[in-house]
Amino acid sequence: MSDPRLDGARARLSLLQAARWRAWEPLLWLLAFAAPVLLPRHAALINEIAITALFAVSLDLLLGVTGIVSLGHAAFFGLGAYTAALLAKHLQGSEPLLGLAAGMGAAAVLGAVASLTIQRGTDLTRLMVTLGLALILGELANKLDWLTGGADGLQGVVMAPLLGRFEFDLAGQTAAYYSLAVLLVAFLLARRLLRSPFGHTLMAIRDNRLRAMAIGIPVAQRLAVVYTIGGALAGAAGALLAQTTGFASLDVFAFDRSADLLLMIVIGGIGWLWGGILGSVVFIVAKDLLSAVTPQYWTFWLGLFLVVLVLVGRDRLLKPWTLFKRGGTR
Known about the structure:
Elements: H1 4-19, H2 24-38, H3 43-66, H4 74-90, H5 96-114, H6 123-143, H7 145-148, H8 173-194, H9 197-207, H10 209-214, H11 219-245, H12 255-268, H13 274-293, H14 298-312, H15 314-317, H16 319-326
């Protein structure tokens, strides 16, 4: 029989080893924060990538780590966007971080309530339920035009300087650093969560929910917690979009926003957090470059890349990413 104390020591050692930073991780973050200075003309694009990456990380916690499929993750994104935008419009001069916290809080509450709907049924059921949630919120935003602006979008959003000092400039420098900072904090929290005993129970639920219940893991509680956290991070991404663009429209609830998110995770790799970030970089940059060359047919070339990625295999097609993934969280 094995010694429980020895097994516990081995488990703690394994968690400590997994929590160590790889040499390339700080380098990527340094490069990310240097990008707005090195590429000042593309600060707005960097801001978009950072927001999308945060959105992708929030979904990867649900899909890649816990195995919760979703086609309506834009519900949390949109609620966070409208909450932050409404706060900025009606409380002009308020600190942007307050709007960010409000957007996260509103999305977290929605996630906690919506978690009750994803604890039963099959993956197909969850797809339909999550999609329906986003459609309902999108229609509510459309009908409540006295509050949200309806199809015209919420206008008149004026952002106060960040921390009372940093104005949101037209070049997008402040916005880029603001979004990158929030992305870094969220990534660190998600990484710590993933590499904790709690994170390992989420992976156990993903691999075999019935077995996880049999060994005493409170599956329903774990699903509710991670769904709330994922919703909060998605709400933070939506709040950042509204704050850095000064606008919120029905597009934040659109189905293609959730669908594109799934594509990004597939491109970067599921279940290791960095996959959402790298997939967002590839998707947004490819979209920007291809739409500049072929504005009408850029989706064809992006789709062709995804087909080749699936047929050939990510490991053979993108070997550098494979090396990153081997040193990642899986």
